[in-house]
Amino acid sequence: MSIGGDEEAEIxxxxxxxxxxxxxxxxxxxxxxxxxxxxxxxxxxxQYIGSVRxxxxxxxxxxxxxxxxxxxxxxxxxxxxxxxxxxxxNDKFKIPVSVFAMDSDVQNVKVSLQVSPELKITGENNFSLxxxxxxxxxxxxxxxxxxxxxxxxxxxxxxxSIGFY
Length: 165
Hints:
By secondary structure, this protein is mainly beta. 7% of the residues lie in helices and 41% in strands. It has a domain at 77-163: Immunoglobulins (Immunoglobulin-like). The protein is built from 1 helix and 11 strands; from the N terminus they run αβββββββββββ.
């Protein structure tokens, strides 16, 4: 026996899961390239980590050709904080931060956490990490934070600096 009404919630949950990653679609327009020449097309990529497929379509007279390739989009160092979506005044919570070294040149990293005035970091806010590529290049750091008596969270910033030694 069931009360009912949960079928629509299940459908909506599936829709939300299907839209987990926003698709990246960029278009550069038409560019003329003479025979034997090369050309570069620059596109501004939105904040995105993953793989994209680049496609090229060529036309000469009545002939068409297409070429595509998969390009990995990444930065040498990626920092991913996980902050709560909602907090109330005077809340105390932990902020886990995942730090990924995606390049073997990244060995020593300094990470500092900066928050807007409505938050106060009560734990450690400066970290020095060392990466070796023997194991998966991922480290997790955690710090404590307090929410003051303001209404909205505005900014949470993690500037990072990479030291090459």
